[in-house]
Amino acid sequence: MKKPISYILDCDGVILDSNNLKIEVAKEVLLNLSDIFPSEKVPEAIESFKKNFGKSRYWHVRQFKNLIHKPVANFEKLFLESYATTLGKKYHLTPLCEGVLDFLRECKSDKYVVSGSDQAELNSVFKKQKINKFFKKILGSPISKAQNINSIVKSSNAKFIFIGDSFEDMKASKLNNIDFFFYKPYSLVRDELEAEARRMNYHIFEDWKEIYGH
């Protein structure tokens, strides 16, 4: 008997058009912490943020801290608090990615969210956007994507497909031995990830209509 298909979706750049928002928020926070974070290191920090997009803010802030070449107390705490506050003012206003709402309405398969975003924040945003009803579970950091996917996969006998737009998404799929679909339009690493996705024979798409009834 053929297994039913269930979809796991990343959030940023797949459901919400929020990739660039998070980049701008991280940059704003680092610049505002110029008394403890060197301004000349901001471009390097933001480039790292882009290349490793999809990892949690807890991972990113540790990389930022490595760019400070002197002992600084409370940098991680200050960054995380400011990032959460600044993002919280804007995140729920983020538009949905084009066509994803039609997919959520039309696709009758079980759907889940696994994201690098903070889990409590993510659930709050989805409720405000009135899209939480489409998902069986909405999971985020500080637990890793790979771990959250693993908990979902273990709970069902379905065939799972993870739809994402970052190398971190692809990595989490590989670690759990499930298929990966690369949603291309909003990715911050579009060309590099497309090349790797093609090499790995993963599905690449730009229009949600391609996925209806897959």
Q: What tags apply to this protein structure?
A:
214 residues; alpha/beta; 2 domains; six-stranded parallel beta sheet; 6 strands; globular
Protein architecture, described:
- This protein is α/β, with parallel strands linked by helices and 214 residues long.
- It has 2 domains: 5-17 and 94-210, 3-Layer(aba) Sandwich (Rossmann fold), CATH 3.40.50.1000; 19-91.
- 43% of the residues lie in helices and 15% in strands.
- The protein is built from 9 helices and 6 strands; from the N terminus they run βαααααβαβαβαβαβ.
- It has a 6-stranded parallel sheet with strand order 3-2-1-4-5-6.
- α8 links the parallel β4 and β5 (179-183).
- α1 runs antiparallel to α2, α3 packs across α4 (75-88) and α7 packs across α8.
- The longest helix has 14 residues, at 19-32.
Summarize this, please?
This protein has 214 residues and is α/β, with parallel strands linked by helices. Helices cover 43% and strands 15% of the residues. The protein contains 9 helices and 6 strands; from the N terminus they run βαααααβαβαβαβαβ.
What's the helix and strand layout?
Layout: E1 5-9, H1 19-32, H2 42-51, H3 57-65, H4 75-88, H5 100-106, E2 111-118, H6 119-128, E3 137-141, H7 145-154, E4 159-164, H8 167-175, E5 179-183, H9 190-199, E6 203-205
Parallel strand pairs: 1-2, 1-4, 2-3, 4-5, 5-6
Helix pairs in contact: 1-2, 1-4, 3-4, 7-8
Number of helices: 9
How many discrete domains? 2
Q: For the residues shown, what is the average pLDDT?
A: 94
What is the rounded distance between the termini? 17 Å
User: Which structural class fits the helix and strand makeup?
Assistant: alpha/beta
**Would you give the CATH topology of the largest domain?**
Rossmann fold
Which architecture of the largest domain per CATH? 3-Layer(aba) Sandwich
**Global outline:** globular
CATH class of the largest domain: Alpha Beta
Percent helix: 40-55%
Low-confidence stretches: none
Q: How much strand content do the residues show?
A: 5-15%
Count of beta strands: 6
User: What kind of sheet is the major sheet?
Assistant: 6 strands, parallel
CATH H level of the largest domain: which superfamily?
HAD superfamily/HAD-like
Following the backbone from N to C, one meets helices and strands in this order, namely EHHHHHEHEHEHEHE
